[in-house]
Amino acid sequence: MLKRLDKIRFRGQRTDVFLDLGDSPNTSDTECSEEILMKPRPSLEMKDTEELQDPAGPGTLTMPAAAIQDYQRAETDRLNDLKGHLEIALLEKHFLQEELRKLREETNIDTLKQELEKERSKRLDLEQKLNLEKETMYSWLQAWLYNRFGAYIGDFRFQPEENTVEPEEPLSAKRLTENMRRLKRGAKPVINFKRNLFALSSWQSVYTSAFAFIIYMNAAWHGWAIPMFIFLAILRLSLNYLISRGWRIQWSIVPGVSEPVEPPKEDLTVSEKFQLVLDVAQKAQNLFGKMADVLEKIKNLFMWVHPELTQKLYVGLWVALICSCLIPYKLMGFMIGLYAGIKFFIIDFMFRSCPKLRDKYDTPHIIWTSLPTDPQLKGATLSRRIHPTVAHGSLGTALPCGISLEEQTGRAYNTKKGAFHEVFNLSGDERPLAVCENGWRCCLINRDRKSPTDYIRNGVLFVTENYLCFESSSCRSNSSKKNKVIKLIDITDIQKYKVLSVLPGSGMGISIATPSTQKPLVFGAMIHRDEAFDAIFTQYMKKVTMTTATNPET
């Protein structure tokens, strides 16, 4: 029975009293089909009445009529409620569709898209501006750092070293002379400072040296030696400042010697220019020679060329190292300061006053004077190759003054034609002096002879303790007829000589007069003329002095 009741789809009034759903706007097909289903069928009441009848026989009802009416009434109420809900839903849908239509009409999608694009473009512009500001800030900071520290950072950049070749100036007599004068002016302050120190150490001014000695020893005793030297440097700079401002301050321990200033000559003859170049070249040669000697001695000292001298330096350095490790620096500075003052003011003064004492006990002086130079080492090596063994008995006498036995045995005393004493028929103890071991190349001009072969002869000139020897380089004969030997005590006159007066300069010859020649002998074309003249004249005066002391009548 209940299953049958569930099949009842609609109960209530007729379809004409319902709202015509077809008149409602915007109804869909689904809604229309639902309306069709909801229309009551005409024979519904009759069928229901029949179904409610008892199946045993028609015309008999199993339920009373009041219950059936109540049931129909309840179904009608139920259907009315459903109808009301449906109408409300349809009205809401209708209103929503109207609102959606109005919204679509009021709102334009293209406008929204355009506004969205505008907002996107604004956002991109803002991002670009922000990035530009960041870049501007970064570039400004970078530029500020570069301007502030770029110059210092650029100094640390690694760059390949450029080998620049300075252009060499052509040789000019005027330029050479000017450079020598500049060198002399530049070295003048150093020379004056050295002279003042020498004057203090030599006690030339007793009061000044005593005052300086007391002040220095007092400063060294109290540990003020270094501040005193710094104060003296500041004082010297202050005086130089006043001098640069026009003050006339001249103070020196050594009295100043005014040197004549030669005015520069504008117009020089060819001879004067040549002589000027020769003088400057000679000064440059002597200066470079002294500098080379100093550098070579220092090199040989550290390279163990003379082991005995280098050994003293080696032991001294070890002693200094041990003392520096054991003795406190304050005490060591005090000891060094006191020793320096005593050495400078007292010991050096005694050594200068007593040369023999200096030669025996002044260790730095002995080491320095005993150090050989490279030319001396070459000469010693050459002599050892020529004379590997030399008898000590033949070198016992007649050693030149100031030359040790080891240095004397290391020299070469052979000429191109044989032993020196055999070539000139002299005794075995006659040997060239140290300054002319290899001799001076020159030409002998004998103006007493008329033959061209005898008038001029090329050769080498030597000087010994007693003789002046000229070895001819002629190879026609091995005899000693063309060699010339002159006793120093037989020389009556010795002078510098200029062979050709047309040539510029003071000449390159030496004139020697003897009683056996009518005209003086001339040794010309001698490159080291001044050196040879000084050596010959010094030895000549030495022999004359000795002969006069031995034989006053002679």
Automatic annotation (TrEMBL):
Protein name, UniProt field: GRAM domain containing 4
Gene from which the chain derives: GRAMD4
Highest taxon of source: Eukaryota
Keyword field contains Membrane: yes
GO biological process, one term: negative regulation of toll-like receptor 9 signaling pathway
Listed CDD domains: PH-GRAM_GRAMDC4 (cd13221)
Transmembrane segments: 197-217, 223-243
Residues in GRAM domain copies: 418-498
Matching Pfam families: GRAM
Keywords noted in UniProt: Coiled coil, Membrane, Transmembrane, Transmembrane helix
Alphabetized InterPro entries for the sequence: GRAM, GRAMDC4, GRAMDC4_PH-GRAM, PH-like_dom_sf
Keyword hit for Membrane: yes
Any coiled-coil regions, as ranges: 86-136
